[in-house]
Amino acid sequence: MNIQSSPGKKLFVLDTNVLMHDPASIFRFKEHDLFIPMIVLEELDHAKKGLTELARNVRQVSRFLDELICDANQQTINDGLPLSSIKHGPKAETTDGGRLYFQTSAMTALLPESMPGTLADNSILRIVLALTKELPDTTVILVSKDINMRIKAATLELLAEDYHNDQTLDDIDLLYSGAMVLEKDFWTVHGTKMESWQEKNRTFYKLEDPIVTEWYPNQYLYIEDETNFEAIVRSCDGQIAVLELAKDYRAKHNNVWGITAKNREQNFALNVLLDPNIDFVTLLGTAGTGKTLLALAAGLTLTLENKAYQEIIMTRETVPVGEDIGFLPGTEEEKMAPWMGALIDNLELLGSNAEHGEWEQSATSNIIMNRVKIRSLNFMRGRTFLNRYLIIDEAQNLTSKQMKTLITRAGPGTKIICIGNLSQIDTPYLTATTSGLTYVVDRFKTWPHGAHITLRRGERSRLADYASDIL
């Protein structure tokens, strides 16, 4: 190993979980050098078998490393492999400065005898400690998704960081909310160059003002005064924007499959869910804010009444909250049934009607269930959904790669609804800032056929509202 040591230079030592989490992570460190210990390669080898997403990631890492090393001899391996030499990696992330080093000799450093932990973790810490002593002019940093590993490194006075490249935002509070409150004197200050007109019973406003540059397509604008002004940004072009007055779904005569909006955010959600020009909708909110109910009510209206879609497909990531219940018998739909309690509960509510008798309610439920399909995420790869209304529940548990796999399944005439709660993430190594749901909210906010809204008020019950606040 011939690592060039120089003041100000950085050498990142990658933990196994970083490569498992993002196969292209070796291309994400710009001009800095990388070091992969031999124990990491052994752990990757043990995890390569299977059909899970983790195993696929490990195999992709192996392909990248194989392409780097295929034409190398012992001398070039010792001198470091230039990451820019790979042909099939993400070129946008590849630079000319970074080199990849493998551990080619035994490296030992004494750890405290009482240091607990697995053999693999301690082996990596020994290597980081040895590199720190061998390269005094180089900043050696351990990169790991394992919090306990970083804590152990800190106790040894070693530099350790989380893998930040998969973070969409530095702070989840910066996430786009989909709505903006306007000042009460908004029209007085900014309405000097404003036009209004009606078209097909819809009211539009054309506004020219510098404030427009802060808006996004399909953003929800409202004024908190007696006018109850609520509008949707239909287009933004420089300092010119076109607004459409939002339809009020809080009125009973505008109910959606018997459901009316309970608050401002729910009203906007129904506006975009029922809009044929919007193909992708994300709904964020805590438990009881009505995410699933609104998505299903709009889906039933569009599918059964308006005939806009052939059927509703609902899927979700099967991550258990507690102990896993093990293998389940039956068909794909029967296996997914225990995970779809929220769907069944909401369909029972939507299928019930106090004005109808028991026979009519039973017939309605049968019609609804014939048009609602439950599908597993495991069988989504390679499929194309045509004229479908696709609901992805618990989307906060998906990675950005899984989210891309699902959204790219959409064929002509398909609408995708992603719903989730970023405070209830059950997938290991995912946080609110690295969740695939956060990723798509941020990436789709400028697309004219996408919309997002964060539901803030719980409408389940006073008990649920109090529990959300106090517990």
Automatic annotation (TrEMBL):
**Which GO MF terms does the UniProt record name?**
ATP binding
Keyword Lyase listed:
no
Record-level GO cellular component terms: cytosol
Q: Name one Pfam family in it.
A: PhoH
Query: Keywords, A to Z?
Result: ATP-binding, Nucleotide-binding
The PIN domain covers 10-151
The record's section on InterPro entries has: P-loop_NTPase, PhoH, PhoH2-like, PIN-like_dom_sf, PIN_dom
The family annotation for this protein states: Belongs to the PhoH family. In the N-terminal section; belongs to the PINc/VapC protein family.
Mind telling me which PANTHER family this protein's record contains?
PIN DOMAIN-CONTAINING PROTEIN, PROTEIN PHOH
* Protein name (Swiss-Prot/TrEMBL): PhoH family protein
Lineage of producing organism:
Bacteria, Pseudomonadati, Pseudomonadota, Gammaproteobacteria, Methylococcales
